[in-house]
Each structure stands twice: as C-alpha cells, then as structure tokens.
Amino acid sequence: MVTLLSIIIAHAQPFFILIVLLLMDLTTQIIWLFLLAIPIACVAWTVTHEEIFREPREYCKRCSETAKTLFKRKLFYVFTCEYCFSFYVTAFFLFITRYQLLLEGWRGYLIAEFALMWVANMYMSLFFLIRTNIKKEGTHAKVVEKELQENS
Prior knowledge:
Layout: H1 4-23, H2 26-49, H3 54-66, H4 70-77, H5 82-97, H6 106-151
C-alpha cells in the first residue's frame, strides 16, 4: 500500500541529496575522501591478497588463465587484481554512501570514483611496502640470530 509519506520521501530524495551536498563543504569532502578510501582499500586488499580468500582467488586465477572466452577471463581476473577489484568496491561504497566529490550528480560520482580508487590504491601500495619491509627485517633478524648461534 502506497502511503502519502512514502510518496513524499520518494520525491524529496533529490532535494535531500542537494542539501547534503550544500552542507558538505570542500573540507568535509576531502576528509570523506581519505576516510572512505580506508575500507575500500581494506576490502580490495583482503579479497585479492589475504589467506582467508586464497582458495577462491586461486580458482579465479586458474579460470582467468584457462577460460575459453575473453569475457570469462576478464571477469575472473577482477578478483585477482587489487586495482581492478577496487573499482567495483569503490562503486559499491559510492552506492551505499551517496558520496560525491566537487560536483553534484553523475559528475560528482565519477570524480569520486576515480579519486577514491587512487587514494585506496595509494593506501594499498603503502601497506605493501610496510609489510614487505617488516618481513625483510624479520628474515634478516632470523639470519643474524642463526649466525650468532653457529658462532657461539
């Protein structure tokens, strides 16, 4: 049953989005940009690199290499590439948050999509560098410890 309230809400949604955009000044938009990129990077990195998704990722990798059609190869490849996957994760987060950057409407969503992807990929790159350095230092410490044990 359609109520008067549901009709008003349905027609008022664009008005409320405009109010949110007017209230969200540039500083707030920039803060949202850097904060919203964190969960995007987290989801994209977890699915494409972490152990918990290893089996589905390996299946997708095999399918991306052996599928007969180009469409299937590219479809499965998305789940093995953090950059590719971050595009869809960003689109999902834009859909649920309605975040727009600089402009309103489709142009604001388009700018937000690419800006969020760029920041999220910078976060993932930094995480990879830090993680690699930690592993390198850990491996170096084990080698030094082993040498000390052999010398004593």
